[in-house]
């Protein structure tokens, strides 16, 4: 995956694909979903992220709302990346994502397509956009663990 870091066109294609065709971009009315509302004071981002957790496994992640390209794409990638993972595995991936955003050492293999956002940390005004969906998921996991 590290070879992707050096090809800005591939990274742009990943971001645009997830923006134009976001995965899991519809909220569910089904029982068992936990929802988190996130809004940005500095951008148009105003989204809801839902997750269905069962027996410490993330069964499903969905999102919807108004969001910029970076927010939509990063939340779409996050939703695919974390589905089916245990909350422990998801926390490791989320931690690696934040380390990448903060220009700290991270395991790029854990991040798969999320690696497309590796330069966001150099653009302070885009960090909130790239992390809003991830922050919602992090809070959902933490809230779920607090209720166990």
Produce the secondary structure layout.
Elements: H1 8-20, E1 33-39, E2 46-54, E3 57-66, H2 69-82, H3 87-101, H4 108-111, H5 124-146
Antiparallel strand pairs: 1-2, 2-3
Helix pairs in contact: 1-2, 2-5, 3-5
Q: Overview of this structure, please?
A:
- The structure is a single chain.
- The chain is α+β, with helices and mostly antiparallel strands.
- The protein has one domain: Alpha-Beta Complex (Sufe protein. Chain: A).
- It contains five helices and three strands.
- Strands 1-2-3 form a three-stranded antiparallel beta sheet, with helices on one face.
- A hairpin with a 2-residue loop joins β2 and β3.
- α1 crosses α2 and α3 packs antiparallel against α5.
- The longest helix has 23 residues.
The first-level CATH class is given as Alpha Beta
Domain tally: 1
Query: What can be said about the biggest beta sheet?
Result: 3 strands, antiparallel
Number of E-state strands: 3
Unreliable residue runs: none
Average predicted confidence as pLDDT? 93
Features:
148 residues, alpha+beta, Sufe protein. Chain: A, three-stranded antiparallel beta sheet, 3 strands
Summarize the structure.
With 148 residues, the protein is α+β, with helices and mostly antiparallel strands.
């Amino acid at each position: 995956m590290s070879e992707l870091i050096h090809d800005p066109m591939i990274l742009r294609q990943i971001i645009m694909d997830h923006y134009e065709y976001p995965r899991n971009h519809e909220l569910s009315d089904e029982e068992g979903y936990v929802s988190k509302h996130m809004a940005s004071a500095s951008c148009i981002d105003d989204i809801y992220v839902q997750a269905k957790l069962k027996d410490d496994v993330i069964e499903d992640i969905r999102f919807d709302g108004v969001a910029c390209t970076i927010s939509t794409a990063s939340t779409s990638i996050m939703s695919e990346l974390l589905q089916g993972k245990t909350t422990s595995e998801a926390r490791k991936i989320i931690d690696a994502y934040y380390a990448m955003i903060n220009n700290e050492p991270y395991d790029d293999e854990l991040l798969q397509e999320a690696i497309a956002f590796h330069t966001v940390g150099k653009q302070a005004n885009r960090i909130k956009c790239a992390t809003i969906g991830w922050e919602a998921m992090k809070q959902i996991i933490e809230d779920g663990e607090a209720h166990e």
